[in-house]
């Protein structure tokens, strides 16, 4: 066998894997692009709740001496709210129960027979979903907020690239968390309990309803270092609002990268344990 054949055989699997991953991302994008009415309705709902949240937080700022609650000025708070409303569908912290349903129905057997790991295939599809949401659901709330409220515009060149990287990492972290929560159905059969807990906890402790910086410092630091939840929304929103200096701004993204690796590793471990359980039971 000559050297050229050896070279092709080495890079072939990588090219094949990359192509397969790209196809799965595209399929996830096309799948969600068919839900046009849901996209419009979701954007309208996000805008309505954006007005409610922004009014509450600006009222809080008006009642604080110096108008900087937790270090945010009114423009930064408005940016926090409206960018958060746009990212809600992109990161997708709620609503995904597909894996749990396939486990409960037994359709997961078809996924296990495919040459691509379920974690990889579902991650690719979720990235496609997030890309579609970024193109269709992110803009309308931000435009509505810019019309009715003064928003903070980035003043540092690194803010926008860091924000985009932060959003990608947040999508990956959120997927890994949702995958682990859904995977409890391998043992529980019905994962509605863990999914409900995730729905409640991810919104409150992820920074959706209010900035976590309003909480005591010791509690906020514990959340940042002990759980991936603040990396879902709080981190990208603090990055784009430029609440912190450049060093801490970059540090938030580094923490997100750490949690992305950890959460995906946990998801892969849980999937391997689940497959072993199915084999032992004769599934």
Automatic annotation (TrEMBL):
Keywords linked to the UniProt accession: Membrane, Transmembrane, Transmembrane helix
Taxonomic superkingdom: Bacteria
Membrane-spanning parts: 40-65, 77-96, 135-153, 159-181, 193-212, 247-270
Protein name per UniProt: ABC transporter permease protein
